[in-house]
Amino acid sequence: DAKTTQPNSMESNEEEPVHLPCNHSTISGTDYIHWYRQLPSQGPEYVIHGLTSNVNNRMASLAIAEDRKSSTLILHRATLRDAAVYYCILRDVTNDYKLSFGAGTTVTVRA
Amino acid sequence: DTGVSQNPRHKITKRGQNVTFRCDPISEHNRLYWYRQTLGQGPEFLTYFQNEAQLEKSRLLSDRFSAERPKGSFSTLEIQRTEQGDSAMYLCASSSHLRAGVLSGANVLTFGAGSRLTVL
Question: How far is B83 from chain A (nearest CA, A)?
Answer without folding.
Answer: 23
